[in-house]
Design brief:
With 326 residues, the chain is of the alpha/beta class. It has a single domain, classed as TIM Barrel, CATH 3.20.20.220. Helix content is 49%, strand content 13%. Helix 7 runs parallel beside helix 8, helix 11 packs antiparallel against helix 12 and helix 12 crosses helix 13. The N terminus is likely disordered. Bound molecules: flavin-adenine dinucleotide. Flavin-adenine dinucleotide (FAD) binds next to strand 3, helix 7, helix 8 and strand 6.
């Protein structure tokens, strides 16, 4: 397979391939992963702002960074462009999100082939949500994320990727359930199907109450889901952020204890931010104490809150959290 690649005369990409690691290698290297999520900027101004912050994010030395995939056509190209640029720069190891909603099989194959050619090692496979604008879109080749995982697995088996293992595949997990499937036993079964179809790891929806995560992790275990589970976290930096989180992650609980603290300072934005950061730090410490496989920060492309969390954890970079010290 590597010969085929070299046959394309693309030595530079081969070098990048070595820099971009399969999730199995990342997890063998890191005792636990630390990762950041970005969304692709949609304007020159947003791109310039992210560009500045990428240097700050790189200083945290994350295990990998992930890049979201939008519902609409133009933002989808932006994901690909940001992923390839990050990889070409070599400072951050990018994991693209890929949603199967509004995609036909040829479209998905085209994306997989392009990422494979660029030596991208891992993909977060999702269904996505039907665009709110109700625009007409391609027939659904893959109705659920498990169908997409199965397809990527077939792509891997067919030798479509320069790494013989193919793409490492991640899927989404929802500790507090998913709005479309109120029956939690059935929803757990759907998660198990994604893992059985070939997923290597799970990244969770954001949550602010660790007890939900721990209980759900135990239930995954009971359901025979044994792949690593990375916890998704997003610090509350303002009351508007909390409302946005509630929207993004429908069904997420904001514990009364947290809301009381926020209410106490509702007229003081700096204090609200401090409460939110402090809460996230408490969550991180608790998760680390209880052997979480990884911490994934939904950054909204801002590095400031992440820096403050790392400082409060006493970690200059993620290296100390990732260290494989036995
Ligand atoms: C870590 C993370 C990253 C995300 N990144 C993005 C992104 O980049 N872009 C984006 O658009 N969205 C993203 N999302 C949102 C996600 O796409 C939506 O929440 C979506 O509704 C669910 O995606 P899924 O991959 O879990 O889908 P699925 O696993 O397909 O599940 C969707 C729903 O269908 C149900 N279901 C599954 N299989 C079956 C079946 N066989 N029969 C009947 N019902 C079934 C499930 O129980 C669930 O209710 C992300 C979410 C998370 C947690």
């Amino acid at each position: 397979m590597v010969d085929r690649w070299l046959g394309c005369g693309n030595l530079q990409r081969l070098l990048h391939y070595h820099r971009c690691m399969h999730i199995a290698d990342i997890m063998a290297r890191d005792r636990r992963t630390v990762s950041f999520e970005f969304f692709p900027p949609s304007s020159d101004q947003a791109a310039a702002a992210l560009e500045q912050r990428l240097a700050a994010f790189a200083e945290f030395e994350p295990s990998f960074v992930s890049v979201t995939y939008g519902a609409g056509g133009s933002t989808r190209v932006n994901t690909h462009d940001l992923v390839v640029r990050l990889q070409d720069e070599g400072r951050l190891d990018p994991v693209p999100h890929l949603t199967c909603v509004a995609h036909d099989e040829a479209g998905i194959d085209d994306i997989l082939q392009r990422y494979a050619r660029h030596g991208i090692s891992n993909i977060l496979a999702l269904r996505g949500d039907v665009p709110a604008d109700g625009q007409a879109h391609a027939p659904e080749a893959f109705p659920h994320a498990a169908d997409l995982v199965r397809h990527i697995d077939r792509f891997n088996q067919a030798g479509g990727h320069p790494d013989a293992r193919g793409f490492g595949i991640g899927v989404a997990g929802f500790p507090e359930g998913h709005p479309e499937t109120p029956n939690q036993l059935v929803h757990m079964e759907h998660l198990r199907q994604k893992v059985d179809a070939g997923a290597d790891w799970i990244t969770t929806q954001l949550f602010t109450d660790n007890s939900h995560f721990f209980d759900w992790r135990d239930r995954c275990d009971l359901a025979g889901i044994t792949c690593p589970i990375i916890a998704g976290l997003m610090p509350i930096t303002s009351l508007a952020t909390m409302r946005r989180m509630a929207d993004l992650a429908a069904g997420t609980t904001f514990p009364a204890r947290l809301q009381k603290r926020l209410q106490r300072y509702q007229d003081d934005p700096a204090a609200i931010e401090q409460v939110g950061i402090q809460w996230a730090v408490e969550q991180c410490n608790d998760l680390l104490d209880q052997g979480v496989a990884g911490l994934h920060f939904y950054t909204l492309n801002r590095s400031d809150a992440t820096r403050r969390i790392f400082e409060a954890l006493g970690a200059g970079s993620s290296a100390v959290l990732r260290a494989n010290d036995g």
